[in-house]
Amino acid sequence: MSIGTIMVIGAGQMGRGIVQVAAEAGKQVRWMDISSAMLGKGIAYLDQQLERSVAKGIRNQDDKSAILSQVQLTASLQEASECELVIEAIAENMSVKQALFRELDEVCTEGTILATNTSSLPITEIAAVTSRASHVIGMHFMNPVPVMRLVEVIRGLETTQTVYDSIVQLSLELGKTPVEVQDFPGFVSNRILMPMINEAVFTVYEGVATAEAVDTVMKLGMRHPMGPLELADLIGLDTCLAIMDILYEGFKDSKYRPCPLLRKYVKAGRLGRKSGQGFYTYT
Ligand code: CAA
Ligand code: NAD
Known about the structure:
Blueprint: E1 5-9, H1 13-24, E2 28-32, H2 36-55, H3 61-69, E3 71-74, E4 85-88, H4 94-107, E5 113-116, H5 123-127, E6 136-141, E7 150-155, H6 161-173, E8 177-181, H7 189-205, H8 211-222, H9 228-235, H10 237-251, H11 260-267
Parallel strand pairs: 1-2, 1-4, 2-3, 4-5, 5-6, 7-8
Antiparallel strand pairs: 6-7
Helix pairs in contact: 1-2, 7-9, 7-10, 10-11
Bound molecules: acetoacetyl-coenzyme A (CAA) and nicotinamide-adenine-dinucleotide (NAD).
């Protein structure tokens, strides 16, 4: 059965994109964030994205209003009880996510599916703090969500086939290609991507080349659409570091050791585009 009502938790860059594609696909969306300022910025972003599609002639003002009317902002987690699915897109931190899933488990009705957009954390460990491990699943979108067509779908140890099938169907309805991936740190995407980004940071740290030179090599030499350090700034350096820490901790293998320069930037508050400075400066 098709999922019609979704709560998205988190109004950062991933939450914004997920809300956009869900509303554009005709879903009713409740949108929650602990920060009302982030929710305000999120809805302004959605308005701007839809306005651009009107300017391009993809839709008209009535379509835009209809899509916006499907999105309701809320400060209350309680409203998750009225949704068939919750998609969590908050910080990449196990204890923060587990605390949220504990609360969600209490407020949601029995059949509600709880999905996490985690980049790298074990789904089974998030599910274990709930009384509904059968209804917890990983639904990993890529950034920027409206553009990137992949969704990694990750079952926890107890996730049922019915729940898996519902998330695969929803991914298709959102215009994405779902790919099943097993529950190991970083799944497939970040197990492969993030060590490359980390190596790019080491290359700068060791003085082999500047950030601009590293990015130019990878764009012109390997046809990557963005250089690894531009991409790190897009993802968020805090998220990149969290993922490297999770890979390092999860596999206990020194090949995943986060570069000290990455940690230094995060400690200094250089988080990439979202803070205005990372490997590059944004105005
Ligand atoms: N939100 C919505 N749409 C966006 C966007 C954004 N943030 N950024 C770009 N777009 C859209 C533009 O509107 C444009 O659409 P139209 O063609 O309809 O006009 C289209 O994307 C192309 O944009 P641009 O021409 O401005 O720029 P580009 O051709 O350089 O593409 C890009 C931008 C799609 C971001 C491209 O550079 C790219 O693919 N970069 C790599 C992205 C990537 O690797 N993402 C994965 C990150 S890892 C991850 O997500 C997993 C994780 O857990 C960390
Ligand atoms: P972000 O820092 O841009 O936004 C996180 C948002 O969550 C903020 O608005 C914050 O106020 C909110 N938040 C934090 N704790 C909360 C709570 N307890 N309840 C409600 N809201 C809360 O982060 P992001 O880049 O959107 O990443 C979100 C998740 O998606 C992370 O797990 C990340 O690993 C994953 N992810 C990120 C990317 C990426 O490229 N950035 C790609 C795929 C997946």
